[in-house]
Amino acid sequence: MPRAPRGRHASKRTYLRRRVVTGFVAAAVLIGVVLIATSLIGFSPKSKGSEKATTSTTVVHTTTTKATNPVTMTFVGDTMLGNTPNLPGNAASYFGSVASALNAPTVFGNLEGTLTDSTGGSKCGASSTNCYAFRNPVAYAPILKSAGFTVLNSANNHSHDYGSQGLSDTTTALQSAGIVQAGLPGQIGLTTQGSTKIAFVDFAPYSNTNNMLDLATAKTLIAQAKAEADVVVVYMHVGAEGASATHVTGQEETYVGEDRGNAKVFAHAAIDDGANLVVASGPHVLRGMEYYNGILINYSLANFAGYQNFATSGTMDLSGILRVTLSGNGSFQSAHFTSVAATGDGQPTIDGSGAASSLVNQLSQADFGPSAAIIQPNGDLAPPPAVP
């Protein structure tokens, strides 16, 4: 039996090897279990002296849309209460007969001149016979404010009638009265109704105002207004002047040798660039209205108020008050046109005959056909056609 002892020794060695392997496997399994458990409970070993466990936070991002409310605005054309020293005796009550129609949270007009007490700097020479330089006293700014005006335009051919001093006095007077000014180079007039911000971007065909002849710059300015406000209103002081200038030609218009712009091209471009409404004056007569891509364009509201400033013969005594309500994002909701007639001295009064409305409808249909904005018998505007 010489081999029996070797067999016993071999079995013992095999047994020991198995024990060692089994121990290593058990240790490995135990380590794995510990690692899995720590990952599940979010524990990670810390270096000595570290006391706090690492935690993670989930950030929930929410998107909110600014709440805006509809806005109602009234618009009138050229306004100037005489020319110093030829001033009305009843300046404080000059707008009394049209106050109810003018009343709105935002009231816009074209200030056809300056507010200054300066006696020098007139653009007209002492011997001029065909030159007009308009100024009212600085004290008239509160009168305009009391009448309801909240925004006044300076993009026109009379804002610089008394040079830099007259212009500076006008700006200061308007600011002191709490009236927003718009229309000087780079100037956007901003106002609010409730939670809705409104931008007024005003243009005239002159380099010392926002220049409507520079379409590229106009586009940039309208885009800036669109970025700053919920609703963008564009005003244009545009076109030839006088009793024969009632039609929108679709062509470049001139007067006394000046390029007065192409009203239709500019208005359409302004809407393409982001305007929610376009209004105008300048020709001193009424012009028609149209809808372009569902947006209202008024091409002239004529002369609203003047004390012996403007001619009042024939149709040149007719003007209107345009009331427009837009939604908080600028879409059309409603509009109303009130016919106005001027007295012999130029004071505005409500015209019950509706002569201004009839004239505007005739001009709108003649100039714009199916896109005409028609004033209904009650003064409301027919809504715009659906935009495809």
From the alpha carbons, calculate the radius of gyration and give it in angstroms.
37 Å
Helix fraction, binned, reads 25-40%
Beta-strand proportion: 15-25%
Number of distinct beta strands: 18
CATH topology of the largest domain: Purple Acid Phosphatase, chain A, domain 2
- The name of the CATH architecture of the largest domain is 4-Layer Sandwich
Largest beta-sheet details: 8 strands, mixed
Total of domains: 2
Alpha-beta classification: alpha/beta
Q: What is the CATH class designation of the largest domain?
A: Alpha Beta
H/E element string? HEHEEEHEHEEEHEEEHEEEEEEEH
The CATH homologous superfamily of the largest domain is named Metallo-dependent phosphatases
- Residue-averaged pLDDT: 87
Sum up the overall morphology in one term. globular
Low-confidence stretches: 1-61
Distance between the termini: 111 Å
What does this structure look like?
It is a single chain. The protein has two domains: 1-43; 71-371, 4-Layer Sandwich (Purple Acid Phosphatase, chain A, domain 2), CATH 3.60.21.10. The protein contains seven helices and 18 strands. It has helices at 4-41, 99-102, 140-146, 163-177, 215-228, 263-272, 355-368, and strands at residues 71-80, 106-111, 114-115, 135-136, 151-153, 180-182, 189-193, 196-203, 231-237, 254-255, 258-259, 277-281, 289-292, 295-298, 303-306, 318-326, 332-342, 348-350. Strands 1, 2, 5, 6, 15, 16, 17 and 18 form an eight-stranded mixed sheet that branches. It is globular, with a radius of gyration of 37 Å.
